[in-house]
Amino acid sequence: MSTPGAAADPAIAPPLVDEDGMAAQLGIDIGGTSIKGAIVDLRTGQLAGSIHSAQTPGTATPEHVAERVRQIAAAEHWTGSVGIALPGVIVGSCLHHAPNLSSAWEREGALDRLRMPGDGDVVLINDADAAGLAELTYGPSGSSDNGLTVVLTFGTGIGSALLHDGELIANSELGGLVVGAGRFEDVASGRAISDDELTPAQWAERAQPYFDQLEAMLNPGRWVLGGGLSEKFEQYSSRLKLSKPVDIAHLGVHAGIVGAAAAVKRSGLPAA
């Protein structure tokens, strides 16, 4: 894997290296509203530089999103491997169940548009799974003895990740759960909070039946809430009535970026 920046550019700091020889890594989180990227110190899971953000194109086609991704990489003079978190289920070269992006992502070869210039590999992961991987790698869930941990990320939609015995169970898509009023992510996502101007109490009234159903189905030992709720965690989480602990995502709104970067190391790509 190449390292960020060319040696000829003295303004770029040398890469950080962990005990396995992996350099700091660029992670990019693609959402229905914005695309964010930053270099992550893989030793700590902390951001090693500023966040680059761009609005998700209105068309949200693979070509237009890929252009934004390459702009973020170029802003960091990055020529190596890139971890990218996506809001959908990755199936071969397609992305399914991504209602906040163009339907063109479901076409064969759509994910190939995310290739980077040069020799850098691209490692893809579901965005909520990226948040779960970040929690597993750098948060208390990595050593949790609470059995199953359910991670829910509240943004344009609701993503989910399941963590059990130190492993990530991918592609759970619990935001699609239907109870009474409709789909979980349609009535209680970050977008629903914004569009419907929900107070924390109103949000909890909507969300509680879904948590009750998930608790009955999965019997989790711990809940982790991330995404937009991270910024006002206590206001929302305190309104829920749950039998097991509810914690804020260890890396908050940066969890998708960090998890995307961690996915590169987890993939086993060669060290820098």
The CATH class of the largest domain, by name, is Alpha Beta
Given helix and strand content, the structural type is alpha/beta
Overall pLDDT: 86
Count of domains: 2
Hey, roughly how much beta strand do the residues contain?
15-25%
- The CATH topology assignment of the largest domain is Nucleotidyltransferase, domain 5
Largest sheet: number of strands, sense, barrel closure: 6 strands, mixed
Tally of individual helices: 7
**Gap between N and C termini:** 5 Å
- The CATH superfamily of the largest domain is identified as ATPase, nucleotide binding domain
Gross morphology is globular
Q: Percentage of helical residues?
A: 25-40%
What can you tell me about this protein's structure?
Helix 2 (127-138) crosses helix 7. The protein has two domains: 25-126, ATPase, nucleotide binding domain (Nucleotidyltransferase, domain 5, 2-Layer Sandwich), CATH 3.30.420.40; 140-249, Nucleotidyltransferase, domain 5, CATH 3.30.420. The chain has seven helices and 15 strands. It is globular, with a radius of gyration of 18 Å. Strands 1, 2, 3, 4, 5 and 8 form a six-stranded mixed sheet that branches. With 272 residues, it is of the alpha/beta class.
